Amino acid sequence: MLQIDIITLFPEMFDGPFSASIIGRAVESRLISIDLHQLRDFAHDRHRTVDDEPFGGGPGMVLKAEPLLDAVEHVEKLHSGLKPHTVLLSPQGKTLTHSKVAELSEMANLLLVCGHYEGVDQRFIDAAVDEEISIGDYVLTGGELPAMVLVDAVSRLIPGVLGDEQSAELDSFAPGLDGLLQGPVYTRPAEINGQRVPDELLSGDHTRLERWRREQAVRSTRERRPELLEDWPQ
Ligand code: SAM
């Protein structure tokens, strides 16, 4: 089971995504366990202040280091002093990729920290964060949506979470496709307004079908993401 703790100012944002569909079922069947921690519970004053103006001036507010450090300590205590792998969601982090997702899915304890406002006091990052992860080169209002993206991607690689074990293995970027994009997929009917499903998919010939899928994956990757073919074992 993967234990995921999330420190956030907006735990209510996670209700829908973590209770519905595949992730909801994974939580119910205890393949993953997700605990949300309200950062304000670790504020040091009666106004529950967790942010302050940046030193040196500039726009926005910065999340204070002490409540974040206390929240991390609290999570460690909950897990008998075991230090979880601590990730800060940040646009300045390394971009999330399939191989990073696979690496995180092998861990036993993950702690995700959601930033907000202008960002997080650097001293918290230096003292408590193992790595910073971005979900892409753009800026969101907070780390909650990135944390949901990360949890979703990681969870579906945990054995038993997807109904059909093979489907993650043959998805885009996965080792089953050597990191290529998956090609097109079709369902019934075999023809719509003159558009026919490719013959290979209807032939019942497994070898022909696999060859076609492979060719389509290479074609799709060459057209859309040619840089992925650079490391590809031709
Ligand atoms: N001032 C920061 C900067 O320029 O790098 C951006 C802060 S952003 C408005 C607030 C928070 O949203 C960040 O601390 C981070 O937790 C989260 N965030 C925003 N964009 C993100 C992204 N692309 N990936 C991961 N987290 C992101």
Task: Tell me about this structure.
The chain has 234 residues and is of the alpha/beta class. The chain has helices spanning 15-19, 21-28, 65-78, 98-105, 122-128, 144-155, 166-169, 199-202, 206-224, and strands at 2-8, 32-38, 51-52, 62-63, 85-95, 109-114, 119-120, 131-134, 191-192, 195-196. It has a five-stranded parallel β-sheet, with helices on both faces. A three-stranded mixed β-sheet has the order 3-4-7. Strands 9-10 form a two-stranded antiparallel ribbon. Strand 9 and strand 10 form a beta hairpin. It is elongated, with a radius of gyration of 22 Å. The mean pLDDT is 96. S-adenosylmethionine (SAM) binds next to strand 5 and strand 7.
Characteristic key phrases:
2 domains, binds S-adenosylmethionine, elongated, 234 residues, three-stranded mixed beta sheet, Alpha/beta knot, alpha/beta, five-stranded parallel beta sheet, Trp Operon Repressor, Chain A
Which SSEs are present, and which pair or pack?
Layout: E1 2-8, H1 15-19, H2 21-28, E2 32-38, E3 51-52, E4 62-63, H3 65-78, E5 85-95, H4 98-105, E6 109-114, E7 119-120, H5 122-128, E8 131-134, H6 144-155, H7 166-169, E9 191-192, E10 195-196, H8 199-202, H9 206-224
The chain binds S-adenosylmethionine.
S-adenosylmethionine binds next to strand 5 and strand 7.
